[in-house]
Structures are given as C-alpha cells and as structure tokens.
C-alpha cells in the first residue's frame, strides 16, 4: 500500500503498535466469535518484501456480487455527506491491491445486503458462522500477513480498523466496535508520536501524502466514531482532537474557513473538547490550573465559541454559496443540523423548566427545514435500501428537541414525521423506537389537558408545566427469541411544579426492530449532556482541569 511520494518513502520509519491494541482487537474478535491474533506489531522490513498474491475467494459465486453491492449500495451509505474520499475512493483503490481491504468490504457488503433484506430475524438465529464472518477472518489474516512483510503497515491497519468498526456496528456488536475505535485512536496517536502532531489548522500544510491521508481521511472518521459509537456501548469518549492545540490544551482554529469540511471538523472538535471537560476527561492535553467548575461559565463559553464559529461559517457561505452544487448545499444543511444539535445539547443543561423550551420556535423551524431537505434528497437517499443505516452525525439526537421538547403542535408532529422518514438505524439506535416513545409522550401530555386522542390542538396551544414529561428511562424485558422485544418505559413529570418532587408512570411498549441484528436500548440522549455532568451531588472535580472551553483563533 503506497500513500507516499518517492521522497517521503525514503524517509519512512517503522511504527510500532500501541501496547494494548493487539489485546483490544483479540478481545473484540473473541466477542464476535472470530479467531484472531490482533492487529499485531509491524516487524522490521526484509530486503525484498514478497509480493502479495490475491487472496482466494470464499466462494466465486458470492464474493464478486458482495463487492459489487458494497461499491454500488454500501459505500455511499457509509460515506454519507462527509466520508466520500475514504469509502468511495481510497477503499476502492486499495481493494485492487490489498486482499485485506477486498475481503473486509466484501464482508460488509454481504452483511449489509443480508440485514437489509432479512426482516424476520433469521440472520441472528443462525448457529453456524455466516459467510461474512469467514470473509472477516480472511481479512484479519491478510492484515497479519501484511504486517510481517511490510516496512510500514500503519495506513493499511488504519483502513482495516475503520472497516472492521463499520462491520461490527452493522452487525450490532457495540462492544467490539468500541474496542476497534479505541484501538484505532491509539494507533493514530502512536503514528502522531512518530510523525508529529498537527501544527496547522485541519486540512492544511501536511508534509507527506501519508500524513494527509491519515489526518484528513482516517482521523475525521475516527473522530465521528468517537463521538457517536462509543456511547452505544456505554463507554467514555477519548479526547481526540483533529486541529492543533496550544501548550495549555486550548483548541486552535483557523481565522477563516476555506471549505465546508474545515467548518465541520472544527465544530466536531469543539463538541469533543466541551464534552471532555464536562465529563471530567483529561488525558493530559489540558494543563491549566484546576478551577471551580461553574456550569454557567461552561455554558457561556461554549455559546461564545459557537457564535464565533458561526460567524466564520457565515463568512464562508457569503463567499462560496453561489458556487455550491446540490450535494454541497446538503452538506451545509447537515453542518447546520450539527450546530443546532450542539445548541440544544447546551440548552438541555441550562434549562430549569420544560416551558423554557417554548421560546425557541425559530430554531425548531430551522431544524425542521434543514432535516427535511436532507431526508428528501433523492441523491443521498435514492431508495429504501439507502435508508437502512447511517454513520453520519445523524438526526435522532437533534430531533429530541423537535419531536419531544418542542410542544408547538404542528412543529412537534413534523418532528415525529421526520423520525419516520429518516434513516431507519443510526449507529445502533432505531429511529422508530424514538418515534414511538416521543409519540407516547405527546399523547400523555395532551391527554393530561383533557384533549381527545387523535385530535390535534390549535397551533398556538401549549401544555402547562405540570403535565409535561421531563425525562424518560427505558429497560428491556426478557423476550422469547424471535418475538418483538418488550421495553419498560418510565415517564417522569413534575405535577407539583418545577420545585416539587418527580412523579413517574411506567408502561410496557413493544418496540419492533426493522433489522435482524440487535439494536441499542433507547436512551434520553439529552440526559447525557452537560446537565448531568455538572450535578454537584455526583461530580468529582478532582483532575478535571480548566472549567471552560478555551479556543484560540489562529491563521
């Protein structure tokens, strides 16, 4: 695998794997029922590395159609709005030369086709290993073979790490996916230790083709995985930043964005940084004196940085919007959704009462407009198969705001409709599960005011505070194999006002999954926001570091 120019190739040095990445992969493979010896450690290069012969196909009648399905159907879905360079270009190119890549994408394509068409759960009940597992194992063996024969296998390891993570997510194995993500981040961090950390804003001034590939194609995907997939497994995110940081750990962003990708990566870095501070994560990047954590200060700082970021984005739009095609416009819409998601996440932490959500009608309308443009895009979603799953930032989290916290009747119902029209599964969460829960919350609140079921209130009607559902909790009950899972959903309210005690009611709901692989239990994603991280009764402030998100703008 060659990602370097000739001059850089002469200066390559062998990279060693992080100490525990082999164990991480071995454990994740064991959980998925595979035989694997881990990513391994690259060995010294031989004078004449042997050439790689094409790996034998598992079945001549299966592998070619699986590859075709991947490139036509799966790759665009994995790429979403932001991953085209990797999934639709680099992966295709390297699959022609690297058996490990070819076997991995064949496994993903076959699994995608199976999960998209097997609606009755037979895939999950098969006792013998599926063919995609055999392809997966062959890919792992090809990776190990490459490590023993190549001077620098790090780019290949990084590519297969991303593909293995995707495969684990599609087959519903959250813990294995989280283990791969952790190993991938450690791999890139080790690579940075050898080749240098970013010193210029993301997307600019890379010293080699390999550096550009690792930082602009691999790192953004790992960052997105770190933001979304880790929570599916109940783990904690790493503080994995793509832009440079100063000596105190403050994030350094460009004074002027030149591309939509720069704006998106900057925003994701801000989210990662803010979440790291709020969750008490400190991996050594933040070295400023410990201060008393004031949630108001944190919220204010995040809002100020969002406003600064928004000004830079507005400037980018003024300069370039007239040149954008439809795809670039949809990418801009997706970035706006991420920005609104961040705003709503901060607001969930700030808000003292449910009625305070009523004052943000303009933002709900903006979110509905952007989300409707995305889910209506016939290029991004040409058919129902393209709505099987999504590894983009997603709409489930922002639609918490419109389909639940927004009580304006028309807007709320539009938010619920968007949950039915969006991708059926985001990461490991089912959009229809949230549609069912938020629809029930709406019924409870409207019934509490005497409204009949199925009757839509006037557009200016809003329920009073004491009937609103302020939180929910979901537990899955034991269910016989092959039957629709039954969940216990507990709804919380404050019938005696915001200063009164919580009241709750628990109901059983059958939440059907549209795919045969296991879905994550629905959770209140707003409950994972800054709000709970700063509950003083639970928070241990030791070692958290700086109490606000500091961002310095540089050229």
Layout of strands and helices, then pairs:
Layout: H1 6-9, H2 21-31, H3 63-79, H4 84-95, H5 99-117, H6 122-125, H7 131-149, H8 154-170, H9 174-195, H10 209-232, E1 251-254, H11 260-278, H12 295-320, H13 326-350, H14 361-375, E2 389-390, H15 396-405, H16 409-421, E3 425-426, E4 429-430, H17 431-447, E5 469-476, E6 486-493, E7 503-510, H18 530-533, E8 551-554
Parallel strand pairs: 1-8, 2-3
Antiparallel strand pairs: 3-4, 5-6, 6-7
Write out key terms for the chains shown.
transcription; mainly alpha; 555 residues; zinc; three-stranded antiparallel beta sheet; metal ion binding
Report on the architecture of this protein.
Keywords: DNA-binding, Metal-binding, Nucleus, Transcription, Transcription regulation, Zinc. GO terms for molecular function: DNA binding; metal ion binding. The chain is mainly α and 555 residues long. The chain folds into two domains: 233 residues, no CATH class; 215 residues. Helices cover 50% and strands 7% of the residues. A three-stranded mixed beta sheet has the order 2-3-4. Strands 5-6-7 form a three-stranded antiparallel beta sheet, with helices on one face. The two termini are 34 Å apart. The C terminus is likely disordered.
């Amino acid at each position: 695998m060659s990602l370097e120019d000739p001059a850089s190739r002469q200066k390559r040095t062998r990279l060693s794997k992080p100490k525990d990445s082999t164990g991480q992969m071995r454990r994740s493979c064991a959980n998925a029922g595979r035989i694997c010896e881990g990513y391994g450690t690259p060995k010294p290069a031989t004078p004449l590395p042997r050439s790689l012969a094409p790996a034998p196909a598992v079945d001549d009648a299966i592998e070619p159609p699986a590859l075709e399905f991947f490139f036509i159907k799966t790759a665009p879905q994995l790429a979403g709005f932001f991953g085209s360079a990797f999934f639709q270009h680099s992966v295709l190119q390297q699959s022609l030369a690297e058996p490990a890549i070819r076997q991995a994408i064949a496994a993903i394509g076959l699994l995608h086709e199976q999960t998209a068409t097997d609606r009755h759960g037979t895939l999950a009940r098969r006792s013998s290993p599926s063919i995609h597992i055999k392809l997966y194992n062959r890919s792992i063996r090809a990776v190990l073979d490459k490590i023993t024969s190549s001077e620098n296998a790090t780019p290949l390891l990084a590519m297969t790490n991303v593909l293995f993570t995707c495969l684990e997510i599609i087959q519903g194995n959250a813990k294995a996916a989280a283990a791969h993500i952790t190993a991938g981040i450690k791999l890139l961090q080790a690579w940075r230790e050898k080749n240098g950390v970013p010193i210029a804003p993301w997307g600019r001034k890379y010293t080699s083709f390999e550096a550009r590939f690792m930082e602009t194609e691999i790192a953004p995907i790992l960052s997105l995985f770190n933001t979304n997939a880790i929570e599916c497994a109940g783990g904690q995110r790493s503080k994995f930043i793509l832009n440079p940081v100063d000596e105190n750990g403050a994030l350094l962003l460009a004074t002027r964005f030149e591309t939509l990708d720069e704006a998106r990566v900057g925003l994701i870095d801000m989210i990662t940084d803010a979440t790291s501070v709020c969750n008490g994560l400190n991996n050594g990047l933040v070295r400023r004196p410990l201060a008393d954590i004031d949630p108001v200060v944190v919220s204010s700082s995040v809002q100020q940085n969002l406003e600064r970021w928004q000004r830079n984005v507005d400037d980018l739009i003024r300069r370039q919007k007239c040149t954008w095609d439809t795809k670039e416009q949809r990418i801009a819409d997706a970035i706006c959704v991420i920005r609104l998601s961040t705003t709503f996440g901060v607001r969930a932490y700030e808000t003292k009462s449910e009625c305070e959500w009523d004052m943000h009608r303009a933002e709900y309308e903006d979110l509905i407009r952007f989300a409707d443009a995305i889910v209506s895009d016939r290029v991004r979603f040409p058919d129902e198969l393209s709505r099987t799953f999504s590894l983009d930032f997603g709409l489930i989290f922002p639609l918490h705001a419109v389909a639940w916290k927004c009580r304006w009747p028309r807007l709320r119902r539009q938010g619920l409709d968007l949950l039915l029209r969006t991708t059926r599964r985001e990461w490991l969460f089912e959009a229809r599960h949230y549609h069912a829960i938020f629809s029930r919350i709406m019924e409870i609140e409207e019934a509490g005011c005497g409204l009949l079921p199925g009757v839509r209130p006037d557009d200016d009607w809003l329920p009073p505070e004491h009937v609103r559902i302020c939180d929910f909790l979901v537990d899955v009950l034991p269910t016989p194999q092959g039957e629709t899972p039954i969940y216990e959903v507990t709804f919380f309210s404050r019938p005696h006002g915001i200063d009164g005690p919580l009241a709750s009611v628990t109901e059983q709901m059958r939440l059907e999954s549209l795919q045969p692989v296991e879905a994550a239990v629905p959770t209140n994603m707003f409950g994972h926001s800054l709000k709970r991280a700063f509950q003083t009764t639970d928070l241990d402030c030791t070692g958290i570091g700086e109490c606000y998100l500091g961002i310095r703008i540089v050229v």
